[in-house]
Design brief:
Length: 431
C-alpha cells in the first residue's frame, strides 16, 4: 500500500501515452472512431515522430511501421491522472473491439508532476538518474510483463559503471557524478526526455496488452511513486548504496586490472592481448596505457570475460575475436570477429558474428554474420549476411544480404538483396 503522500503524488501526476496497435480500418476511419470514443480532436500525421506536439485536447495518429506494415501510433498530450485512467481504459477497449496488437507493439507512459500542486522540487529536470535507477524495482515490472524482459526496445536500466578505471566508491561517501548510468533511448526508462521535463517508460507492451488494463495501471502507479521517491529525498539511502555496491561488484576486478598489464593478466586470464598480432609481453606492456581505456569499455560496457583482443597501433583500433558479448550496454568503434553479441552496437565492423536482440547503428556487417530480432539502423549489410526477423531502416542503409521475415522499413538495396516473407515498405534500388 502507498502512503498518503505517495497517493497525493499519483493524483497530481501528469500522464501521456503512446499506444502502438493495428486497426481493422483505414487511417481516416480509425481517426473518426477514436475521435468519437475519446471526445478529443485527432490529427493524422504523414510520418512517425512528427514535429506536432499533442496537447491535452488534441492528439495525433501517425504511422509506426517498426511493428509491421499498418501499425499506427496514437500519441496523447499530458493530462491529469484521473483523466489518464479514463483515456487508458477507453483506448484499450477500442483496440480490443477494433484492432489488435503484436509482440512488437508497446505502450509508452510519459510522466511528470503538476508543479503548481507538488512544488518546484518535483521538476523532472532535477531528477538524479542514479538514485532512481538504484531504487527502482525492475523485477516487479518483469513479473507483470515477463515477455518484455529481453526486449531490444526496453532493455534493463540496471547498469552502472565507473566513468574511468580508477574510480572506486569511498566508504561512507557517494557521488553519482563518478558513475555512468543508462542514457540512451531503447531502455525500459528513456531518460533522454528529462530536458523536456518528463520521463518516458517503455517497459510495457507485447501481444494482447489491450487486455491488461489493471496491470498497466499498477505499473503506472509504481512508476509515479518511484519518481516521487527519488525527487522527494535526493540523498542516497543505505539500501541504494547497497544496490550500487552490488552493481559495482561486477566491475571490482576491472578496477584492479586498470592499474597494469600484470594485474590484467592475473584477473582476466581468458582474455589474450596482442599488439599488431604480436604477443610478446614487452610489446603489449609498452602499449597497455594506450589500450586500457578501450579495454575498460569492453570489460564494463560489454561484460567481456574471454576472447582475443588485438590493438592495431597504426589505426589505434581494436579487433575482438571469439568473445561472448551478450551484455553490451554500449560498444562503439570495434572490429568484431566471430563474436556472440547482444545489446547496443555502434559504428562497429562485424565479421562472422551471431547477433541477437540488439540495436545496430551505423555498423558494417560482413562475412556470414547472422542477426536475429535486431533493429538495424543506417548499416551496410554485405551479400553473405542473413537477418532474421529484423527491422531495417535509415536513409543511409545499404542492403545486399538476405532477410528472413522482419521489416525493411527504409533504405537502399542492391540487386543481390533477397527478401523472404519480409515486409518491404520503402526501398531504393541501386546498382
Amino acid at each position: 500500500m502507498y502512503s498518503n503522500e505517495q497517493l497525493n503524488a499519483i493524483h497530481w501526476s501528469k500522464v501521456g501515452f503512446e499506444f502502438e496497435f493495428f486497426s481493422n480500418s483505414n487511417l481516416d476511419k480509425t481517426k473518426e472512431s477514436l475521435t468519437r470514443t475519446l471526445d478529443k480532436k485527432i490529427r493524422i500525421e504523414d510520418k512517425a515522430h512528427s514535429d506536432f506536439a499533442p496537447t491535452e485536447d488534441v492528439y495525433k495518429l501517425e504511422p509506426d511501421n517498426s511493428g509491421g506494415t499498418g501499425m499506427i501510433e496514437l500519441v496523447t498530450g499530458p493530462m491529469k491522472y484521473p483523466e489518464a485512467k479514463l483515456i487508458l481504459a477507453k483506448v484499450l477497449k477500442w483496440i480490443k473491439e477494433n484492432g489488435s496488437t503484436g509482440d512488437r507493439a508497446s505502450i509508452h507512459v510519459n510522466l511528470a508532476f503538476d508543479l503548481e500542486k507538488m512544488g518546484p522540487d518535483f521538476d523532472m529536470t532535477k531528477l538524479d538518474v542514479g538514485k532512481f535507477v538504484l531504487g527502482f524495482d525492475e523485477d516487479l515490472v518483469y513479473e507483470t510483463f515477463p515477455n518484455r524482459k529481453d526486449s531490444v526496445y526496453a532493455k534493463s536500466i540496471k547498469f552502472v559503471m565507473p566513468l574511468n578505471g580508477m574510480t572506486q566508491r569511498s566508504p561512507g561517501k557517494l557521488d553519482w557524478k563518478n558513475y555512468q548510468f543508462v542514457n540512451e533511448k531503447y531502455y525500459g526508462v528513456n531518460f533522454t526526455k528529462i530536458p523536456k521535463g518528463y520521463i518516458e517508460f517503455r517497459y510495457l507492451g507485447g501481444e494482447g496488452y489491450e487486455n491488461k488494463y489493471q496491470q498497466i495501471l499498477k505499473m503506472m502507479d509504481y512508476f509515479i511513486v518511484s519518481l516521487y521517491t527519488a525527487l522527494e529525498d535526493p540523498k542516497y539511502n543505505k539500501k541504494e548504496e547497497k544496490e550500487l555496491d552490488r552493481l559495482l561488484d561486477l566491475h571490482k576486478g576491472v578496477i584492479k586490472a586498470y592499474r597494469s598489464l600484470d594485474d590484467f593478466v592475473k584477473l582476466f586470464p581468458k582474455i589474450k592481448l596482442m599488439v599488431d598480432l604480436q604477443t610478446a609481453t614487452q610489446i603489449v606492456k609498452m602499449y597497455y596505457p594506450q589500450m586500457r581505456e578501450r579495454l575498460f569499455q569492453l570489460l564494463t560496457k560489454a561484460d567481456m570475460k574471454e576472447g582475443l583482443i588485438n590493438y592495431d597501433s597504426d589505426q589505434g583500433r581494436m579487433q575482438v575475436k571469439e568473445a561472448k558479448l551478450d551484455r553490451c550496454f554500449s560498444i562503439e568503434g570495434f572490429d568484431l570477429v566471430e563474436c556472440e553479441l547482444q545489446g547496443n552496437i555502434v559504428e562497429c565492423d562485424l565479421f562472422q558474428c551471431q547477433v541477437k536482440n540488439s540495436s545496430l547503428i551505423r555498423c558494417n556487417l560482413f562475412g556470414m554474420t547472422e542477426a536475429e530480432g535486431c533493429k538495424v539502423e543506417s548499416c551496410y549489410t554485405s551479400r553473405n549476411v542473413t537477418l532474421k526477423n529484423c527491422y531495417v531502416y535509415g536513409q543511409n542503409s545499404v542492403f545486399s544480404g538476405e532477410m528472413e521475415g522482419g521489416i525493411f522499413r527504409q533504405g537502399r538495396a542492391t540487386k543481390h538483396a533477397r527478401f523472404n516473407d519480409t515486409e518491404v515498405i520503402e526501398v531504393e534500388k541501386i546498382k
